[in-house]
Amino acid sequence: MALLIVSTLVAVPQHVRAAITCDQVTYLLVPCIGYGLFGGTVAPTCCTGIKTLEADAKTAEERRKKCECIKEGAARIPGLNYDRVNEIPAKCGTTCPYKLTPDVDCSKVN
Q: Which residues does the chain have with pLDDT short of 70?
């Protein structure tokens, strides 16, 4: 039995990686909430999270999933200022392929 388990693990290609999850997205973007609510200075940990997510979302499917997670998470934050949220990527020295709004169509994200 142990040999079967080991042979199964060895047979999995090393390039296979787990899909991005909403828990990961939430964890990485929590430091951005303060700016989205109150403005001020974007936390360095927010920029790190954004850049990490950008690097991790390599396929269109992963970018769409990230978009859905961000859209759903943002909808749960009362008083979130979407204009401020959309400023964050530029303040962190990066870009976002879509403008976050309550009704953004994540299925169109490439």
A: 1-18
